[in-house]
Structures are given as C-alpha cells and as structure tokens.
UniProtKB/TrEMBL annotation:
<dbReference type="GO" id="GO:0043856">
    <property type="term" value="F:anti-sigma factor antagonist activity"/>
</dbReference>
<dbReference type="InterPro" id="IPR036513">
    <property type="entry name" value="STAS_dom_sf"/>
</dbReference>
<feature type="domain" description="STAS">
    <location>
        <begin position="1"/>
        <end position="99"/>
    </location>
</feature>
<comment type="similarity">
    <text>Belongs to the anti-sigma-factor antagonist family.</text>
</comment>
<dbReference type="InterPro" id="IPR002645">
    <property type="entry name" value="STAS_dom"/>
</dbReference>
<protein>
    <recommendedName>
        <fullName>Anti-sigma factor antagonist</fullName>
    </recommendedName>
</protein>
<dbReference type="Pfam" id="PF01740">
    <property type="entry name" value="STAS"/>
</dbReference>
<dbReference type="InterPro" id="IPR003658">
    <property type="entry name" value="Anti-sigma_ant"/>
</dbReference>
C-alpha cells in the first residue's frame, strides 16, 4: 500500500495503491522530487487505488505545477470507474491526460 515511484527511460512512473489521501502525502512528496531532475513525462498509475479524496486532487495539482502545467506531460492511467468519476467531476480531464 502507498506510493511506488521509479524513473525509466526518462519517464517518472508513480503507482498509487490503496487509499490516495493525506495519509500518503509524505510518500507522494518524496516521489515527485524525482520530477525535479528535469523529466518531461510523468505517468500516475491508479490501477490499485480504491479511494481518492480532495487532498489527492491537491497533490496531483502540485505535481502539475512542478512541471509547468502542461496537460500532456502527466498521464493518469488505469483509474477504476469510481476514481475516474471523481477526476472527471473535478474537471481533471481538462488538466491531465486521463487514459
């Protein structure tokens, strides 16, 4: 459970498992430090995420700000229907690439 992050071929891969809420804030913050190395592409895999709250949305916005706000630079993928619905209600489909 929690956050797993790795850099592979110039892409930062962040995998969130379990609850994506304030409880993983410190882990997520550590993961996005890898984006400070000048990466231009980030993938956030939510396949294992069964819950997301407003603090998770805030963490994603901080990540977006770190890389300059480019919609195509961050791909959020594999979100379950319930999690994807939260992202769409918050209009994150206009801020990120949802796959």
């Amino acid at each position: 459970m929690g956050i797993d992050a790795r850099v592979d071929s110039g892409v930062l891969h962040i995998k969130v498992s379990g609850k994506f809420d304030f409880g993983v804030h410190n882990e997520f913050r550590e993961a996005i430090k890898l984006a400070e190395t000048g990466l231009k592409q980030i993938e956030v895999d939510l396949a294992g995420t069964d819950y997301m709250d407003s603090s998770a949305l805030g963490m994603l916005l901080v990540l977006r700000d770190k890389i300059g706000g480019d919609k195509t630079a961050i791909r959020i993928k594999n979100a379950r229907a319930e999690v994807k619905k939260i992202l769409e209600i918050a209009n994150f489909d206009k801020l990120f690439s949802l796959l």
